[in-house]
Amino acid sequence: MSIDTAVTTGTWALDPTHTEIGFTVRHLMSKVRGKFDTFEGTLVTAEDPTASTVSVSVDLSSISTGTADRDAHLRSADFFEVDTYPSMTFTSTGVTQKDDDEFVLRGDLTIKGVTKPLELEVEFLGEGGDPWGGTRVGVEAKGEISRKEFGIDFNIPVSGDKVMIGDKIKLHIVAEAVLQA
């Protein structure tokens, strides 16, 4: 099914109550899922969707995996070191349209003072009015990073030349943004 990807031009703000910035990482023989509860972001849309821009800032202390002790450890110097590096940021550098409703969003991701390029596969979910008289747009994005590239390399060896925590972090974002007046 094709979705009309002609989006109203303007500035859109992420709606934190209808947006989730989540991740999955390998842990032993399973996977741990988590998300960040506090963030802000802006999408500036242009007539040509490939000229649109995105910027997001995430409060790393808002990490939530469902386990308080693990969340506290992730905030520590072993991982995010939130006292020194309180936020993670993403600033887009380009957009490529793959087909009617799929795009590749390229940008710079900064974690712990280290900036690396990130590509996100983005699906445009549509634009429409809301019950409060506003206009909303929805997207879903997926990508993957190496945590070690950002200096997050804490691990615990386990038997068989394995480690407790995987290096690859899968990112999953489902977002709604509201057109600003």
TrEMBL record:
InterPro entries found in the cross-reference section: Lipid/polyisoprenoid-bd_YceI, TTHA0802/YceI-like_sf
Family statement drawn from the similarity comment of this UniProt entry: Belongs to the UPF0312 family.
Protein name: YceI family protein
Domain Lipid/polyisoprenoid-binding YceI-like: residue ranges: 11-178
Leader peptide range in chain numbering: none
Gene source species: Aeromicrobium wangtongii
Domain of life: Bacteria
